[in-house]
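Archive entry: two folds, one per protein. Generate the first.
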Amino acid sequence: MMIIFFQGRLIKAWEINTEFNFVDFIDGAWDEGNNCNSYNDPIIEEKISMRAKNVAPSYRCPYSIEQCTNSQQKYGQYAKLLLHPYCLIASEE
């Protein structure tokens, strides 16, 4: 942050030091179709699973195994903290 005096007034302003690109941070793990949800309540889990199957019978979680594999590599040792177990065990065959 820069602090500038202009006409006797203190002005605080942000200064860009480096370029920032969201592409470096947003990936397939942000997609709940790949990094699946789980619920502690088995009744809720079953209802949501059945609803998903009714809406999209061919849907499987993870939707994109490639995205899970990329996320496993990207996050390394932190993957187990960030990715759903289904995404962790997904591998391209």
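Generate the second and append.
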Amino acid sequence: MGDDFSGYKKLFTEKRGITELGCWTHARWKFFDPNTANKSPIAAEALARIGELYAIERESWELDEKACAVLSQDRSRPLLAAPLPMTGHAPQDARRSHCTATASC
């Protein structure tokens, strides 16, 4: 998991078998600034969805790994798969949560 430092980008593009895994905290900032400056409806929707993901994550803290995976499949995956209004694109699928990741921002 990286913090979006541009120096890491080359590692992800050189076919070294390294997969980029982003952090929702850092992704959130990409939407926070435009929303604050311009009241962007796309940014506002993205922030709302990230907030929902955070709430689901908080629910999962007390669950075992199996229950956490079920929660993720049932609630997080559909939220990530739904297109954002006005863009027609879904946010990138988060492949890990606290249940499977060992690092977090």
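Annotation attached to the second fold: Residues 6-81 form one domain. Helices lie at 9-13, 24-38, 41-60, 65-81.
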